[in-house]
Amino acid sequence: MARFQGRGPRDFGAERQMFKAVCADCGKECEVPFKPKEDRPVYCRDCFMKRRQ
Predict the structure, then answer these.
(1) How far apart (Å, rounded) are the C-alpha atoms in residues 48 and 51?
(2) Shortest CA distance to 24 belongs to which of 8, 36, 11?
(3) What are phi and psi of 47, to 5 degrees?
(4) What angle (nearest 5°) sits at the alpha carbon of residue 49, between those of residues 8 and 30?
(5) What are the tens digits of pLDDT across the range 25-36?
(6) According to the 3-state scheme, what is the secondary structure of the chain?
(7) How far apart are the first and last CA of the chain?
(8) pTM above 0.70, yes or no
(9) Which residues make Cβ contacts (< 8 Å) with residue 44, sequence separation at least 6?
C-alpha cells in the first residue's frame, strides 16, 4: 500500500490553514502551516533555511 508524506490522498490540492507568527530570529511577521506553541521558537522561511545549513 502506498504511503503519502505530509498530506493524505483526500487532501490533495486542498488549501492549508496558515497561522500568523513572529520570527524568533529577525522579528519579522510570517505565516506557518502549524499552530505555534508558546514554549517553542518559530522562524520565518529565510531564518529557518539559514539555521538548516
Answers:
(1) 5
(2) 36
(3) -65, -35
(4) 75
(5) 999 999 999 999
(6) CCCCCCCCHHHCCCCCCCEEEECCCCCCEEEECCCCCCCCCCCCHHHHHHHHC
(7) 34
(8) no
(9) 23, 25, 26, 28, 30
